[in-house]
Amino acid sequence: MAVSRINYRQEAEMYSGWVSINDEIVAAEDAKISVFDRGFLFGDSVFETMRLYGSKPFALSEHLKRLRASGGKIGFDIPWGQEALGLTCSRLSRAAKLDSALIRLIATRGQGAFGVELDELLDPQLVCILQPLPPLPDEMYQVGRSARLVGVRRNLVEAIDPQAKTGNYMNNLLAMREARQYGYDEPIMLDHRGRVAESSTANIFVLLDNCWCTPPLEVGILAGITRETIFKIGRLRGFQVEERVLWPDDLRCADEMFLCSSVREILPVVSVDDRPVGRAKVGTHTQALLQWYRDFAQEQACWDWD
Questions:
Q1: Can you give the residue ranges of every domain in the chain?
Q2: Cβ(41)–Cβ(114) under 8 Å?
Q3: pLDDT of residue 17
Q4: What is d(CA 167, CA 164) in angstroms, rounded to the nearest whole number?
Q5: Could you tell me which of 198, 305, 301, 185 has the C-alpha nearest to residue 246?
Q6: Domain 138-300 falls in which CATH fold?
Q7: Which CATH class is domain 11-132?
Q8: SS3 label, residue 243
Q9: Which of 128, 220, 288, 305 could form a disulfide with 86 if both were Cys (CB 3.0 to 4.6 A apart)?
């Protein structure tokens, strides 16, 4: 299956964007941060990406809560509370006046020496980036995606906990690199025991015996906000969703499969390692869930603080 890609570089060149650094809004071309910032030197930062629907973010409070929780997992006490973080995003969105966009909120530990010691008092930095959301190809949702079980294993919880969304994204980047190198759209990572974990930027769901199953957090995956939303929609719509340890054979036996994330929502997967998932086409259950998710996100999107 041909790899469908979005030319983000071309989109970025067409649009200068908006950036807020420590609550000072500047044009993207004027945005600067020190080369001595630990986020740049070591990936010593945490971040969240939110999607705007009708100029309003979906699950803003959940994203901001997770940002602060990620900081806690790496010993970074983020000095901004949820309301202050929310207002930073709101001000930037109102300045940009974009209907459909992405917000990336990044908190770095600040400037420091070249060493890895954390004894010195640092000056944390808060960066908020807003860019328009490029139209995602219809093919991604109508035809579906191909996936590869990659050799790159998901980080051990005891090393860098995948539930901490940090600027150190090399594990995810290498997984995507391997999938694309072999001509697949999406990677699927396993944990050190060979259990299904997640994709590079998305959680995984498979339909087994009329139940949507997703790996438990204990396997070592991000506690996805879209993932949790699917559990909520399941309770509202009356379909079964559960956590279950999954193995590669479960993917091959699944009737349907999708990846989920805030940016790409519900993304159908129709093959794994060139083997068809179900009938090798986007299933009716996945199509219905995609529409339910979009309806729910658009209805619930709001600014918690103005």
A1: 11-132, 138-300
A2: yes
A3: 77
A4: 9
A5: 198
A6: D-amino Acid Aminotransferase; Chain A, domain 2 (3.20.10)
A7: alpha beta
A8: strand
A9: 305
